[in-house]
Specification:
There is one protein chain. This protein is an all-alpha fold and about 240 residues long. The protein has 2 domains: about 1-100, Acyl-CoA Binding Protein (Up-down Bundle); about 125-235, Serine Threonine Protein Phosphatase 5, Tetratricopeptide repeat (Alpha Horseshoe). The chain contains 13 helices and no strands. Helix 2 runs antiparallel to helix 4 (about 80-95) and helix 7 (about 140-145) packs parallel to helix 9. The longest helix has 24 residues, at about 1-25.
Length: about 240
């Protein structure tokens, strides 16, 4: 019985340190290269979920494939070993990170929340994926997705995903980043509209061309309208 209690306490301490390390990673993302970020991504997924249990992404989802490989290549590594490797990797980069880290062990991974009050100006530290997408900040979007893209297809209260928002704004570089990281092309909002509906109705020609090139479908929304039916005159001919 005593041994079991010791094992539980040891695991609890490991998880606590792991969560602190994950929290600290947010503050040093800009210092890391893509290889390091992929390594952390793989360890994090292995530590929190276990052995890779998702299929390999589609050919055009390049970043998603890189991240899938980083996780899948860990094979049957235990969650405990993945946590230890994650902590050791952080320590190798910043030996004093535990001193500087916040004592709050809550999970730090970015999640998509309901859209904030538009009248309230957010500090950069409070902004989520949707906020950066609306601002068209490709650098911050890439940083978030490189660390964790598991929420990339989450929807807000209007049923809109990050890809819907990016297509509405016409942020082509962000759209490419989202799709490369595993965003669902034909995800429909509460009205049955896809990202292609949004891009077409707003007249974002380059966005429409790209979405079609990677296989977006001309689905009908809840009013039986396809993207071509709602398209701006400048893009209607393309569809």
């Amino acid at each position: 019985m005593a041994e079991n209690i010791d094992l539980i306490d040891e695991m609890s301490l490991l998880e606590k340190n792991f969560n602190k390390a994950a929290n600290h990673l947010q503050s040093i993302v800009s210092k890391l290269d893509s290889g390091q970020l992929l390594e952390f991504y793989g360890f994090y997924k292995q530590a929190t979920i276990g052995v890779c249990d998702v299929p390999k992404p589609s050919w055009y989802q390049t970043q998603a494939k890189h991240k899938w490989s980083a996780w899948n290549n860990l094979g049957n590594m235990s969650r405990e070993e993945a946590m230890n490797k994650y902590i050791n990797a952080i320590t190798k980069i910043e030996p004093d990170w535990k001193i500087d880290s916040n004592n709050d062990a809550n999970n730090s991974w970015v999640v998509v929340s309901s859209l904030p009050n538009t009248d309230k100006k957010l500090n950069d530290n409070d902004k989520k994926l949707l906020d950066w997408i609306k601002e068209g900040n490709e650098v911050r979007v890439k940083e978030i997705l490189m660390i964790n893209s598991s929420d990339i297809n989450n929807i807000d209260d209007d049923g809109m995903s990050p890809l819907h928002w990016a297509s509405d704004r016409g942020h082509l570089s962000i759209i490419k980043c989202l799709i490369e990281n595993g965003a669902y092309l034909d995800l429909q909002d509460n009205d049955g509209q896809t990202a292609l509906h949004y891009a077409a109705s707003c007249g974002h020609i380059e966005t429409v061309e790209y979405l079609i090139s990677v296989g977006a479908k001309l689905l009908k929304d809840n009013d039986d309208l396809t993207p071509k039916d709602v398209a701006d005159e400048n893009v209607k001919a393309m569809l």
